[in-house]
Specification:
Number of helices: 12
Helix content: 40-55%
Structural class: alpha/beta
Strand order of the largest sheet: 3-2-1-4-5-6-10
Number of domains: 1
Distance between the termini: 37 Å
Length: 369
């Protein structure tokens, strides 16, 4: 079946993995990668597929409604996988306006463009919006009463409660507030206009091609250079971690088989305290660099906690498992090993991103960002 799929934010971290998977898995599809190429967008993430006949790239801003209309018309778009977003919490605290504009108004622009172009002919159409578990707020950090492995009984290593698809929204940062608002707009377009929408909320992703402002690639890079490893507060905050390739697999499955107007949570039952995660990273990087065990422990530096720092996130993916059969494929230690090896094997990519050298390519091709 021939399809024309628009993937927004496809030059970013998660988006590039989704684009790669879709281009390689569905040669009969045309995959349109739309990205504004902000600091976090990098076409070097897709060098391996950029010459594929079923792939094309469009540089555009999702907030530009006329540009979105033109993309739908030019490429006869019949499916949208919407990943484009500002996503770094620290940046949202410093600049909430940019997050509101991109995440809320940009999503609204896409929704309206889809509604107008499809014009009520929704057969076979899909608008799939990727969101975050941060919209749910925070969970308590408590001693679990149930299964310590956090499986069927609902207990986890740091508490008995998980975010489910029925959890009420309670965002605490400008980033999560902007994503919560965009989620509501997506659902409102289904309820008001019948637009065939799906929403997913996922836990923290990690893996290759992540911009090194995020914890795992930042710490790998800092260890390489002997720089401090800044830990918020006491490092007690808990996050659920998901390998990005597993997330891309889930997105592919949900886009094709998920039920319209449904929400699916995507997580790995894989909770880690930040400080414990950091020590795993240290041990892995030191070992792969040939350092003596514990060499980089001295780089840990405790810093003032982030404003509104949620204590614990934990996702319950039972619905996704039961309905569509999805489960994570990697255990965390295996995923971390693969991730650290990738960054150490791709130091040129990492150095080009951290130095800003990669931006010169875009200035030459498209002008200044």
């Amino acid at each position: 079946m021939k399809r024309n799929i628009l993937i927004t934010g496809g030059a970013g971290f998660i988006g590039s993995h989704v684009v790669r998977l879709m281009v390689n898995k569905y040669p009969e599809y045309r995959i349109v990668n739309l990205d504004k190429l902000t600091y976090a967008g990098n076409l070097a993430n897709l060098k391996d597929i950029e010459e594929q006949s079923n792939y094309c790239f469009v540089r555009a801003d999702i907030c530009d409604y006329e540009a979105m209309q033109e993309v739908f018309r030019k490429y006869d778009i019949d499916g949208v996988i919407h990943l484009a977003a500002e996503s770094h919490v620290d940046r949202s605290i410093k600049d909430p306006f940019t997050f509101a504009k991109t995440n809320v108004l940009g999503t609204l622009s896409l929704l309206q463009a889809a509604k107008e172009y499809w014009n009520g002919n929704y057969d076979g159409k899909r608008f799939y919006h990727i969101s975050t578990d941060e919209v749910y707020g925070a969970l308590e950090l408590t001693k679990p009463k149930g299964d310590p492995n956090g499986n069927e009984c609902g207990g986890g290593p740091y508490g008995d409660l998980f975010f489910t698809e029925q959890t009420k929204y309670n965002p605490h940062s400008p980033y999560s507030a902007s994503k919560a608002s965009s989620d509501h707009f997506v659902r409102a377009f289904h309820d008001t206009y019948g637009l065939p929408t799906i929403v997913t909320n996922c836990s923290n992703n990690y893996g290759p091609y992540q911009f090194p402002e995020k914890l795992i690639p930042l710490f790998i890079n800092n260890i390489r250079h002997g720089k401090p490893l800044p830990v918020y507060g006491k490092g007690e905050n808990v996050r659920d971690w998901l390998y990005v390739v597993d997330h891309a697999r889930a997105i592919d499955l949900i886009f094709h088989e998920g039920r319209i107007a449904e929400t699916y949570n995507i997580g790995g039952f894989n909770e880690w305290k930040n400080i414990d995660l950091i020590r795993v990273i240290i041990r892995t990087v030191d070992r792969l660099l040939g350092n003596a065990p514990g060499t980089s422990e001295k780089l840990i530096t405790y810093v003032t906690d982030r404003a509104g720092h949620d204590l614990r996130y934990a996702i319950d993916s039972t619905k996704l498992k039961n309905e569509l059969g999805w489960e994570p494929s990697l255990q965390f230690e295996e995923g971390i090993e693969k991730t650290v090896r990738w960054y150490l094997d791709n130091q040129e990519w990492l150095d080009n991103v951290t130095s800003g050298e990669y931006e010169k390519y875009y200035e030459k091709m498209y002008g200044s960002r």
